[in-house]
Amino acid sequence: MTAHSWEKVMSQTFTLGIGGAAGQGVATPGDIFALIFSRRGLHLNAYNAYQSIIRGGHTFLTIRTGVDPVRSTGDDMDLLIPLNQDTMDRHLRLLKEGGACIYNADSVKPGEAAAGVQLCPIPVSQLADISRNKVAQNTLALGASLSMMGVGFHVLEEVLKAQFGRKGEAVVNENVSIARAGYEYATGKFKPFAKALPMTDTRYAVLSGNSAMAMGGAAAGCKFYCAYPMSPSTGVLHWMAAHGRKAGIMVRQVEDEIGVINMAIGAAHGGVRAMCATSGGGFALMTEGLGLSAQAEIPVVVIDCQRAGPSTGVPTKTEQGDLWQMLGAAFGDYPRVIAAPFDIGDCFTLMHEIFDVTDKFQVPGIVLCDLLLAEGRLSVEPKLLDFAPPIDRGEMITSNGQPHGEYLRYKITESGVSPRAVPGVPGFTHTVSSDEHDENGVLISDEYTNHAKRRAMMEKRMRKMVGVEAMVPPPVLEGPKDADVTLIGWGSTHGVIREAIEQLAEQGITANHLPIRWLVPLHGDAILDLLKNAKRTIIVENNYSGQFARYLRSETSYVADGHIRKYDGEPFMPHHIAEAVREQLAGSTTLSVPTHEVMV
Amino acid sequence: MATINMAPPQPLVMADLKGKVDPDWCPGCGDYGVLAAVQKALVELQIPNHMVATVSGIGCSSNFPGFINTYGMHTLHGRSLPVASGLKLANHEMTVLVTGGDGDGFGIGVGHFVHAMRRNINLTYLVLDNQIYGLTTGQTSPTSRIGMKTKSNPAGNQDTPVNPLTLALAAGATFVGRGFSGDQKHLTELIKQAIQHNGFSFLDIFSPCVTYNHDNTFQWFRPRVKKLEENTSYDPGNWIAAMEKATIWGEEIFIGKFYETTAVPSLEETEPVLEAGPMTRRDLHIAPEIAKQFVEELM
After folding, report:
1. Residues A127 and A246 occupy one common structural domain
2. Structural domain boundaries, residue A157
3. Is the whole-model pTM more than 0.90?
4. Are the beta carbons of B5 and A246 separated by less than 8 Å?
5. Does residue A567 belong to any structural domain of this protein?
6. What pLDDT digit, counting tens, does each position of A28-76 carry?
């Protein structure tokens, strides 16, 4: 996981937002800002709020940057670039004193801004030939913004050359000249931002959670990836498709998610590390396959990027609503592991850990991600993207070097793990089966349905969880032990809870944090031990029913004192959690459901 | 991953292919004949059994992998083709046979059937077609004839049966044939050709259910089946002729190789990732200079 030292309070940040209709070109200036920040030693965290349409509607990209790792996109904004009236109307209120709004004077009317907010109209048609360049307003705003941030024009010029280089010199020159016009116009007209963002020679890598999971899988030795496109997991497929041939990974787009998981299981049985990714709906189709993986003891890694459900739900919005689907996926009892990454860096790191566990114990492994991380972007130290992690594939038979007796694919062992022979090895032919089977793979229904054999095989498989629990680290309580309140979260809320705790500290409330990364195995006893001296516990999660709270209760009988939940499709902002904690400490409620104040 | 030490070459004999248990199909079931034909074909082709994988779905005929000594996978109902595709792509040096019934392949698994043919992976798909659901004790299957009375259609089936051959031809299969469990010699030859075909080969094999299908019995098929090969002017390279022959059903039902094209490359041939050999024997780590490029793209 990305290292954040607890003591270090996040220093000053700068947040900008660009919004418009889908197709208006929000992405390109966003990418350029991200490159400029990350190439000059600034960390960033970005989140794009959008609708499930290709053209039109409203899309709003938030980029927050700062010297330290940026844990969330924050509460408010320093710079707003509304590409249309709608964005101006929705987001101007987020600007606080010292902030600025750069907009097209020809087409957007300013709204009522807070005191101390600078309105910066750009006469777009005077500065650029808008009949030739449809996105001139974006480029002018980009130039103007960097001027006001005090970034030298050469920095922008360099990035524009890289961005548009492959489109030819004419396109580069046109964009550079438009950007320069915006830069120069702003230099004379508008007041620079007072916030200083020190820039250094350090460079960070910027990536989405989807890219991070794909790269993490590649680094972990995944040699087979297949998927059916489904938002918000499609980015994993896109990375794999673009890099598979170079990386030596077989990448296939399959007809449906049923085909996907079964193909991945077939490949895994062939001896490769195999994985696939989907969202809740696709995962629902995969569930029978998950049971096959467990019963036939063929390891496979499945990524679920949660989106707001049920059914088609809100395809472009985030939620942590799939936990119980993961816990209950496929009928019957079987061993599985489930882990939820804390942040985008962790999306990379978690992959080799979960591949090792699934391989060693020959069980299905689920990475429970969500749209916030999958499609968000984060800067990370490039050295975090370690492509040579240690790999432990467990007991595999890949050669027939040693003489042996009858090979028992499902040999009953103390650990529950039976050495796995890979097809192609002479002398180890056997059949793996979704039917209950004996140690040698023969279906128990083909002899006689033998209850003693069934029981022994059931216990063998389930015994693996003892080893899994020993291999997987228990959760850690972060922050002061004697805090007023303990916030419990899982997966992607890690950063925003940590930031809320900083806000609470400023208000004189001490809080600590119990973030859960491994959901199965949960380490219930360790959790109870960590919580035994907690003064007040509050579980924070992005769903309606408190899925983790219910799970914790079912596993440990532990009942938290309060709950903070959000299920409107948007992620938590730090102040949502801080305000809810204050409300609960004041005794007014034990269930807070913060309102997302901005219509994104 | 360690390399595989090849066993000293010894001729493969029928006894090598005997499974750990004897088949528990009903006495007289058509599936026995198909199993024997597959074993004979492998012996005649001398493919070492550790280089063969038999992958099935669920159903009577899907118990096949347990009755033959190869690497076997007994998967989920309808899902044999995706599993087999994954296995083949992980180790394309294996000969991968896929077995199952008409319910498994043309009912619950028909989506995968169509897409597997589009992909043209070098698999041999043998459907043991008995025109009934056997393991669930006799319900209408996708190939049951109109009017056939079963437990799920006591008044007679109302749905038009699937024609597996025309479906396969339309989906772009590069090898399409039909066999009959009652003609061992012909079936063995057909299976050999299907295995040797480069690309996806599909055989619909009449494998009568002696317990639940009282319409399409061995006795019913025997006088009707006619071998395409007996007509020396029949050209299996002619797709339209194959379509025409495949639609004939009644007093005359053709068996044999309906269609084969070698003009379409298999996926294994067109996929550059496989140029370096089977995926399963690759170095797990990505070359450092490639990994470095991947990270630099993000900076």
Report:
1. no
2. 13-189
3. yes
4. no
5. yes
6. 899 999 999 999 999 999 999 988 888 888 999 999 999 999 999 999 9
